[in-house]
Write a structure and sequence with these properties.
The protein has helices at about 1-30, 75-100, 105-135, 145-170, 175-200, 290-295, and strands at about 30-40, 40-45, 50-55, 65, 70-75, 205, 210-215, 225, 230-235, 240-245, 260-265, 270-275, 300-305, 315-320. The protein has about 325 residues and is α+β, with helices and mostly antiparallel strands. Among the domains are: about 1-30; about 45-75 and about 205-235, RNA polymerase II/Efflux pump adaptor protein, barrel-sandwich hybrid domain (OB fold (Dihydrolipoamide Acetyltransferase, E2P)), CATH 2.40.50; about 80-200, no CATH class. The protein has a 6-stranded antiparallel barrel with strand order 1-10-13-12-11-14. Strands 2-9-7-4 form a 4-stranded antiparallel beta sheet, with no helix packed on it. It has a 4-stranded antiparallel beta sheet with strand order 6-5-3-8, with no helix packed on it. It is rod-shaped. The two termini are about 45 Å apart.
Length: about 325
């Protein structure tokens, strides 16, 4: 009898051990579940310049594509600024071309004629000066006449020297420093033109990405300042899901892990991939913590939904399931 009892006890222990092993295996392969929310991804859209709203082309709830024109400012002041900048560029180009081309042949001929005229005047004055000098030596002329002849001589000599210097400058052309300054002026004018062009382009507001317009903040005719939002755009793609994993379960997840995503509103099962796990705890306890407190640490992770539809709406709570660790072979 005792032998039978011992056999029964052994069988019970074997069954209990098998049950424990089976429970562990089932728990090891059971799906690992996380809970999270679809990330709210919104962008406030506004102009980089101030102006009067000319048109708002979409209403709240409208779906827009990347590159769609959403709103337009009155661009007349900016077109005028661009025209002024273009005129400055043309003027700077003409000035630089003048400096680089040097003097025209006609200018050189005029300068040469002035030299010849000054030379003739000087020769006449020189003759008169020599004649008055000889007469003055023989007391045949007055001091006043001699002084006038000498002054005329000096004056025409100075004019001849000036005319020759002017001719030399005209033949040589403009200085290299003047040409360099002219080039810098042209670069500055072109830079101002590009700034004016950019400001004109900024009077058109385009969608940076596809999405749904959830807020239309202003209406045509409103004077808006630079940076003031006129629309709020909810981004549709990609769809991110924010979830948290407890510190003891951190080893069960890894970037690149495939997951299944479900919601409370539909039976649709969405596929996703874990793309990011935070390198630090979201809530950090005191520097001295017990073992129990350490288990309360959680880490944020981001899941990228694949092929989402309107069933995944921003802010919606979702359930994420991924396979547990498999049995080692």
């Amino acid at each position: 009898m005792k032998k039978i009892i011992r056999i029964i006890i052994v069988l019970i222990l074997i069954a209990a051990g098998a049950g424990i092993v089976y429970f562990k295996e089932e728990n090891n392969t059971a799906p690992f579940t996380l809970y999270g929310n679809v990330d709210i991804r919104e962008v406030d859209l506004g102009f980089r310049v101030s102006g009067k709203l000319l048109s708002m082309r979409f209403e709240e709830g409208d779906a827009v594509k990347k590159g769609d024109v959403l709103a337009v400012l009155d661009d007349e002041p900016f077109r005028n600024e661009l025209a002024v900048a273009a005129a400055r560029v043309a003027r700077a180009e003409a000035q630089l071309q003048k400096f680089e081309s040097g003097s025209r042949p006609q200018e050189i001929k005029v300068a040469e004629a002035k030299v010849q005229e000054a030379d003739a005047s000087y020769n006449n004055a020189l003759l008169e000066y020599n004649r008055q000098k000889a007469l003055f030596s023989s007391n045949a002329t007055s001091q006043q006449s001699f002084d006038l002849a000498r002054a005329r001589h000096d004056e025409t000599k100075a004019r001849l020297h000036s005319a020759r210097e002017s001719l030399a400058l005209i033949r040589e052309g403009f200085r290299s420093e003047d040409i360099l300054v002219s080039r810098r002026n042209l670069q500055e004018a072109k830079g101002q033109y590009e700034v004016a062009k950019t400001l004109l382009e900024d009077t058109i507001l385009v969608a940076p990405n596809g999405g749904i317009l959830i807020t239309r903040i202003h209406e045509p005719g409103t004077i808006v300042a630079a940076g003031v939002p006129v629309y709020t755009l909810s981004l549709r793609n990609p769809v991110y899901i924010r979830a948290y994993v407890a510190e003891p379960d951190l080893g069960k997840v890894a970037p690149g892990t495939n997951v299944e995503i479900t919601t409370d509103s539909t039976d649709t099962v969405y596929s996703g991939t874990i793309g990011f796990i935070s390198p630090r705890a979201e809530f950090t306890p005191k520097s001295v913590e017990t073992v129990e407190l350490r288990t309360d640490l959680v880490y944020r992770l981001r899941i990228v939904a694949e092929d989402p539809d309107n069933g995944l709406r921003q802010g919606m709570p979702v359930t994420i399931r991924l396979a547990g660790r498999q049995e080692k072979q």
